């Protein structure tokens, strides 16, 4: 299929809780491949399956955005789990499903991520921090139907959504990190 359209807020699929993947079927492999292509085309740092309209527990991300990352290539994660989380970090986040909206959100600064890599092998617990930890938490939220706006204060959320919903389609500012 190649590049798939990215679903934008307020599409209902963004509020769906994604299901566990039960096997590496050709459909799941095709989804992973397409999501990697779609993320690259959108110049995103991460992308969850709900964002291409598929409520399965799959996300892709690009660890190359962070210098010294333990991972060196864009990768897909299936049935991800956060085993540990610690510290607090504030990050100006953007979301590929909310063009041209950034919000400063508090997340855990360090996480240990488990799940299956796109080749079906268990990750075995990878430590990530900073931008990559933020990205993974953002994607895991997507898989639970949670959006970054939900982490902002009620007032900030209202103002940002009013502005977002009242204007026409916008492009992303590619200089910023979108997940
Ligand atoms: Co997002």
Offer a few descriptive terms:
179 residues; alpha+beta; Peptide Deformylase; five-stranded antiparallel beta sheet
Question: Layout of helices and strands, plus pairs?
Answer:
Blueprint: H1 26-41, E1 46-48, E2 58-61, E3 75-86, E4 89-95, E5 98-107, E6 110-117, E7 126-129, H2 130-143, H3 154-166
3D structure, described in words:
A five-stranded antiparallel sheet has the order 1-2-3-6-7. A two-stranded antiparallel ribbon has the order 4-5. The protein has three helices and seven strands; from the N terminus they run H-E-E-E-E-E-E-E-H-H. Helix content is 24%, strand content 27%. The longest helix has 16 residues, at 26-41. It has a single domain, classed as Peptide Deformylase. The mean pLDDT is 94. The chain has 179 residues and is an alpha+beta fold. The structure holds cobalt (II) ion.
Strand order of the largest sheet: 1-2-3-6-7
| Structural class computed from helices and strand pairing | alpha+beta
Mean pLDDT: 94
CATH fold-type name:
Peptide Deformylase
Distance between the termini: 21 Å
Output the number of helix runs: 3
- SSE order: HEEEEEEEHH
Helicity, as a percent range = 10-25%
The CATH architecture can be named as: Alpha-Beta Complex
> Bound compounds, please?
cobalt (II) ion
Main sheet overview? 5 strands, antiparallel
Poorly predicted regions are none
The tally of domains stands at: 1
Number of extended strands: 7
Q: Tell me the CATH superfamily.
A: Peptide deformylase
Supply the CATH class: Alpha Beta
Radius of gyration over alpha carbons?
15 Å
């Amino acid at each position: 299929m190649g590049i798939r359209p990215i679903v934008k807020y307020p599409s209902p699929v963004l509020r769906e809780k994604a299901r566990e993947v039960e096997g590496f079927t050709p459909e799941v492999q095709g989804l992973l491949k397409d999501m990697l292509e779609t993320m690259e085309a959108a110049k995103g740092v991460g992308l969850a399956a709900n964002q291409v309209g598929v409520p399965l527990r799959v996300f892709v991300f690009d660890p190359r955005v962070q210098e010294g990352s333990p991972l060196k290539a864009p990768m897909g994660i299936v049935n991800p789990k956060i085993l540990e989380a610690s510290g607090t970090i504030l990050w100006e986040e953007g979301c590929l499903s909310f063009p041209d909206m950034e919000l400063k959100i508090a997340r855990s600064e360090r996480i240990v991520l488990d799940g299956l890599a796109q080749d079906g092998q268990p990750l075995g617990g990878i430590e990530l921090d900073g931008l990559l930890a933020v990205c993974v938490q953002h994607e895991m939220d997507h898989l639970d139907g949670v959006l970054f706006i939900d982490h902002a204060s009620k007032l900030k959320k209202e103002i940002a959504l009013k502005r977002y919903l009242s204007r026409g389609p916008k492009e992303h500012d590619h200089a910023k990190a979108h997940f």
